[in-house]
Amino acid sequence: NIDIREQTFKISSLNNRKIITTSNGVIFFIDSIHPGNTIYETFIKKIHLLNSKINWENKTIVDVGAECGDTPLYFASLGAKIFAFEPLKKHYDFMLENLKLNPKLSEKSIPINAAIGKDGNLKFFVNNQNDEFGTCGASFVYNNQNKNFKHTNVTGFQLNTAREKFKMGHIDLLKMDCKGCEFVLSDKDLKDIDRIKIEYSTHGQTNKLENLLKLLKQ
Predict the structure, then answer these.
(1) Structure confidence by residue, pLDDT tens digits, 140-155
(2) In the prediction, which pLDDT does 131 show?
(3) Within 13 A of 160's CA, how many CA atoms are on the CB side?
(4) How many CB atoms lie under 10 A from the CB of residue 186?
(5) Cα–Cα separations (whole angstroms), residue 71 to 40, 67, 175, 188, 215
């Protein structure tokens, strides 16, 4: 049974900006989050809680698609150390602001303004209109913005390159929500990882679920 207090959130103000505090004390600027899913998915539905019996204290998590910092702060509240990759500057800046609101948890998070997928400069499809919450569904793999898009350049790393550059070592959990970059993974990227949690996005004739499952089984 879900304790009703877990679904109780406090809304207040800080320096003329509204903030929301979760039941376990994690704080976010309301204007940094997507109202329809950020709090609901991560802190109410807890879709990132793989197993309540796992002790995440001092475990290493690589968060690909950290957006406004909701998942890094959630994992940090469980005791983990997080490498938080977010390619879009607006989302990344939101994450930095939210990390500052949670100074103790921020000590466990390493924010990185870069994409995972390929080494080099990557062209992301983003929304061409002014979007106060940033771009939903941004990707360098495919255009999820229809005709209303523009390109933005982002620094990219193959996962194995990032692991060496940021000295990650053993990874206890790889969490990916990156709109297609999961299909760029290789055998080399996936060595020495205990668990993988992927939100996948199939597109066209090449990015098929069976291809991703084949790689993971290997």
Answers:
(1) 988 888 788 899 999 9
(2) 67
(3) 9
(4) 11
(5) 12, 8, 9, 25, 25
Cβ-in-10-Å burial (0-12, 13-18, 19+) of 104 comes to: exposed
Q: Quick: pLDDT tens for 155-188.
A: 999 999 999 999 999 999 999 999 999 999 999 9
CA dist 125 to 142, 181, 183, Å? 7, 13, 17
For the chain, the residue count is 218
φ and ψ of 23, to 5 deg: -65, -25
Tokens for 58, please give them. 């001092």
Spatial neighbors of 188 by CB under 8 A, at least 6 apart, are 160
User: In whole angstroms, what is the distance from residue 209 CA to residue 200 CA?
Assistant: 8
Total-model pTM: 0.93
